[in-house]
């Protein structure tokens, strides 16, 4: 039987979930995918060339589907295949490979500029599948209470992610120890200055339920700041055809070319002492130039229970010992996004994490 698709009059709402590196997008998305949530197609951009992100989604056991999109350069080509992925989703629903979904959530990478994605969705013609059956409903931006303020002030990219938002999901406010009330006020003032129409919801607040974040409307750029309108205009095909250059995503001192990704994959297990020393040296040497590190590590004491680590702009978040591997891939995997760290030095350092040799007793 054919699945009911969204329709021109009643399109499937598409939510864009954006926010800077490590600001809590995946954590929030997992909360949105509770078992009783509406059926959701989730589109994620894989982070670096080593798959970790997909393993961190708890799509299994919910009524949702995970659809991977690939984007090319993490910094430059964030929106390229969103529209064609929506077309593929629509086809898969149409021929019954995927059951009909109630909504689509697109999680961008933390380094994605939302402007081209939003522009593509808004510009999709009613003759295209994306334009006929799907509509951009809202942009939700995660704002990290620990690092958000300085990131938005220093990086145009983070500024844009905030400026385009309908809703700002304030994350990690539970980790504020120094003058939490003052920091919250400063964050509210930042949002009010850059995007006065956005609604801020603290994800710790019981009222910040997925339904409140994802209430259905249609995204409208009208009434937004002049900057937002200009950024969308810069993305128009005409502007591109005439070679209008989008402004650099990085404010002075943060040149785009200094940001890169490195990955490490290891067969075999390492000891927790090795990992502690490795991370200690890395964090001391790199500080907040270590924009992001995430890893699933096979520890020698119990290789069946991987160790999940997150570092965000130099802050080590409480690691987790998982009960089991999230997928069939049991290799240790690390992905690092660095800003201005010597690339060769980082590459050589990553290779110092080697599997522990298993001693064989002589027979
Ligand atoms: N205490 C606390 N930790 C949080 C919160 N939100 C996210 N985290 C932690 O922050 C780290 C990064 O969270 P992710 O959800 O992976 O962030 P992300 O934005 O998806 O990361 P990228 O995809 O790398 O950009 C993890 O260690 C999370 O557990 C929060 O509200 N409170």
Automatic annotation (TrEMBL):
- Please list the GO terms describing molecular function: hydrolase activity; nucleotide binding
Q: Which residues form the CobW C-terminal domain?
A: 259-354
Catalytic activity annotated for this protein? GTP + H2O = GDP + phosphate + H(+)
For this UniProt entry, what's an example GO CC term?
cytoplasm
Which UniProt keyword terms apply here? Chaperone, Hydrolase, Nucleotide-binding
Q: What is this protein for, i.e. what is its function? A: Zinc chaperone that directly transfers zinc cofactor to target proteins, thereby activating them. Zinc is transferred from the CXCC motif in the GTPase domain to the zinc binding site in target proteins in a process requiring GTP hydrolysis.
The record's comment on protein family reads: Belongs to the SIMIBI class G3E GTPase family. ZNG1 subfamily.
What is the protein name for this chain?
GTPase, G3E family
